[in-house]
Specification:
It is a single chain. The chain has two domains: 37 residues; 198 residues, L,D-transpeptidase catalytic domain-like. Strand 1 and strand 2 form a beta hairpin. The strands form two sheets. The protein has a five-stranded mixed β-sheet, with helices on both faces. Strands 5-6-7-8 form a four-stranded mixed β-sheet, with helices on one face. 39% of the residues lie in helices and 18% in strands. By secondary structure, the chain is α+β, with helices and mostly antiparallel strands. It contains six helices and nine strands, in the order αααββββββαββαβα. The termini are far apart. It is globular and about 75 Å long. Helix 3 packs across helix 5.
């Protein structure tokens, strides 16, 4: 009987250690990943291009070919919709109109419909953003940092006395996220390589609660939000309409 109890205790301990290790790997990346980089050594954007560039560009070229568009493009726009958990890649050669190239599923995004208001609210921002930089040493494989909070975000944060509207918002790999957009590793490799090829100054990022380009009535979306959100959604609507044509047929 004693031996049986010992075996049960050992099995329980092993199961607990395995479960704890998995949870720490998934949710403790911000703790262990920097230490891992200290041991392994940091990599450069050029290292990432060498590692993933060829395969990522092969997939990208297939997307562009199917869309009838030229690769590489001169400009791209990334458009994320919270309700459908999708991120659309639009691209334009030179000054020509944008084409829809590919639609990526968003693998992880916390919060609900509506803008980010403060640090720790777990909200993904909504608005019109740019890419500030590419991080080849992200805890989430690879990442692209957004310029949140932008001038619009800061304007209303200051008006409402919100001194900490949040920061460090990324489009990144893996499938878990708090306040960012987790795209999975293969997708972020493609987006990272494309962003490096195009140049971050030629990228715009739009994040909206739903496709406001084809949504004429904004009233249902404005409930329980501050009055300034109406202005934000109208700005997003004007930005999105050239990309998504309402079928009036």
């Amino acid at each position: 009987m004693a031996n049986k109890n010992v075996r049960i205790m050992i099995q329980t301990l092993i199961a607990t250690l395995i479960c704890s290790s998995f949870l720490f790997y998934q949710y403790g990346r911000s703790i262990w990943h920097p230490k891992y980089l200290e041991l392994k050594g940091k990599r450069s954007i050029e290292d990432v291009v060498d590692l993933y560039g060829e395969q990522a560009e092969t997939r990208l070229q297939e997307y562009f070919q199917r869309a009838g568009s030229v690769y590489p493009p001169a400009r791209i726009t990334l458009i994320a919709f919270k309700d459908t958990k999708t991120l659309d890649l639009w691209a334009s050669p030179d000054s020509q109109p944008f084409n829809l190239i590919h639609s990526y599923p968003i693998k992880g995004a916390s919060g609900h419909l509506g803008p980010k208001l403060r640090e720790g609210d777990k909200q993904v921002p909504e608005g019109i953003y740019t890419i500030e930089g590419l991080n080849p040493n992200s805890s989430y494989h690879l990442s692209m940092k957004l310029n949140y909070p932008n001038s619009f975000d800061w304007k209303y944060a200051k008006m409402e006395g919100r001194n900490t509207p949040g920061s460090n918002i990324f489009i990144h790999g893996k499938t878990l996220s708090v306040g960012c957009l987790a795209m999975g590793d293969k997708a972020i490799e493609e987006l990272f390589i494309l962003a490096n090829t195009v140049g971050i100054d030629n990228i715009e990022v739009l994040i909206a609660p739903t496709n406001l380009g084809i949504e004429a009535n904004l009233e249902p979306l404005l409930k329980q939000h501050p009055p300034w959100v109406a202005d934000l959604y109208k700005q997003l609507q004007r930005k999105l309409q050239p990309y998504y044509v309402l079928d009036r047929g």
